[in-house]
Amino acid sequence: MRKNRALMLGGTGGKMMLKKKDRKKAINTVTLFFKMIRDWKHGRYHRSPFKAFVLVGVAFLYIVSPIDFIPDVILGLGLIDDAAVIGIIWTLLKKEISLYEQWQSLN
Is the Cβ–Cβ distance between 30 and 24 less than 8 Å? Predict the structure, then answer.
């Protein structure tokens, strides 16, 4: 597979392919998340992204914690629950970021 068509990500036991447009969407979502935090910090965005802070913090703690539903020692399977947490958090953050994006388009 050509390198310029897809980015190969391994580590979860399988392979996931992100096409170029999906990579751009992911980068845009992360960029908007940091802009949302910045605008909230400076008082421009009044909706509290506290939920987003908590979600990212809990996900980070779960991923780095040695205590998991499926231990990381079990190769392949141990990373599946971490990937699931990332997927769930990503979905929830996209909702919060879409609200920020709507606010940003109005201002």
Answer: no
Are residues 39 and 46 in contact, defined by beta-carbon separation less than 8 angstroms? no
Residue 2 lies in a domain: no
Total Cβ atoms within 10 A of residue 106: 6
Dihedral angle sign, alpha carbons of residues 67, 74, 78, 70? negative
Q: Per the domain annotation, does 68 fall within a domain?
A: yes
Q: How many helices (H) and strands (E) does the chain have?
A: 3, 2
> What pLDDT digit, counting tens, does each position of 90-105 carry?
888 888 888 888 988 8
Tell me the residue range of the domain where 89 lies. Answer: 23-106
Q: E strands within the chain?
A: 6-9, 16-19
Q: Which pTM value belongs to this model?
A: 0.63
Number of domains comprising the chain: 1
* In the block, residue with structure tokens 């994006």: 101
